[in-house]
Design brief:
102 residues; mainly alpha; 2 domains; NAD; translocase; membrane; EC 7.1.1.1; cell membrane
Length: 102
């Protein structure tokens, strides 16, 4: 328990920043009209390629005996890839709606 409290006290500023980012994200997303939600989310999902690259870098620099870092890195690569592919699929379906029918 002492270690947890010590960790929180050492990283207090980072915790405040993360909590403020969560509240800011909720406020920003909550004010987006429903019509714009799908295009914005598909674009945001496509940007998650950065997550994939970061996870690959973390996995490459992790010690081979650190199974937690490798497992979390692998999970981040898989979920980031699913997010990117999903973003492109949704964007493609939205663009199909604007094409003229034959």
């Amino acid at each position: 328990m002492q270690n947890i409290l010590e960790w929180f006290s050492l990283h207090e500023q980072y915790i405040y920043i993360v909590v403020l980012m969560i509240f800011l994200g909720i406020e920003v997303i909550g004010r987006v009209p429903a019509v714009l939600h799908t295009p914005l989310m598909s674009g945001a999902n496509a940007i998650h390629g950065v997550v994939i690259i970061g996870a690959i870098i973390v996995m490459g620099k992790a010690d081979t005996s650190n199974y937690l870092a490798l497992a979390l890195g692998f999970l981040a690569v898989v979920l980031g890839t699913l997010n990117v592919v999903g973003g492109f699929v949704v964007t493609d379906r939205m663009l199909e709606m604007f094409k003229k029918k034959k």
